[in-house]
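Project channel, design review

CF: Before we commit to the Paenibacillus polymyxa constructs, I'd like one complete example in the thread so the newer folks can see what an input/output pair looks like. Taking Helix-turn-helix domain.
RD: sounds good, go ahead.
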Amino acid sequence: MLETIGSRARFLRIRKGLTVETMIEDLKIPVFDENNNLSGYKKVTKGTIGNLENDRNKPNIDLIIALSDYFEVSTDWILKGREYEGVKMRSQTEEELQFFYDTTKEEFIQKLEETINKFKNNN
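CF: and here is what came back for Helix-turn-helix domain:
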């Protein structure tokens, strides 16, 4: 059912109760200048959304990001229909970062030496 980018885009629009016309009024693609400063917004056309939803054209990255922001879903879901697997490891990564913030240099060196010794003993 939601096997293509277009079908997922259509699903998101319909789930939110929007017509194509309503969606293109609100959906804007940010435009940046050569210094990467926001310089304005580019409107999306009805034809762009129609071609996307009917799988006639592949969206560019700017449209994918705009859809992701607009519908509050990940770009991975738009592109692949599933979330990025790395998100599951986020809390573990946060715990590891907290360890580095809370650890003194000496404690860190001790922990590093313990880890190295574990690897040496296992080989």
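RD: helpful, thanks. The domain at 5-83 is CATH 1.10.260.40 (434 Repressor (Amino-terminal Domain)).
CF: Helices lie at 5-15, 20-26, 46-53, 61-71, 75-80, 90-102, 105-122.
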